[in-house]
Design goal:
By secondary structure, the chain is of the alpha+beta class. The protein has one domain: UreE, C-terminal domain (Alpha-Beta Plaits, 2-Layer Sandwich). The chain is built from three helices and three strands. It has a three-stranded antiparallel β-sheet with strand order 1-3-2, covered by helices on one side. The two termini are 15 Å apart. Pfam families: DUF2007 (PF09413). This is DUF2007 domain-containing protein.
């Protein structure tokens, strides 16, 4: 799996996850449960991971949706 986004913004993650689902790209939001351990302070960022073979397609979809600034290099 390839990391495309790392953020604390749950709205951005929700949008990105929805876009991946609509495109049929398997994705995973990692570190969601870490907020329980940190006391919901928002210190630990969540990561959007997508399947290796479709990472470039996923990047294109996220760019087209206006999330280019959120993408990891």
């Amino acid at each position: 799996m390839i990391e495309l986004i790392r953020t604390n913004d749950v709205v951005t993650l929700s949008l990105a996850e929805s876009l991946m689902k609509d495109a049929g790209i398997h994705c995973l939001v990692a570190d969601q449960s870490m907020s329980v351990l940190e006391g919901s302070l928002g210190l630990l960022q969540r990561r959007l991971l997508v399947e290796d073979g479709r990472a470039e397609e996923a990047r294109t979809i996220l760019r087209d949706a206006g999330l280019e600034a959120e993408l990891r290099p």
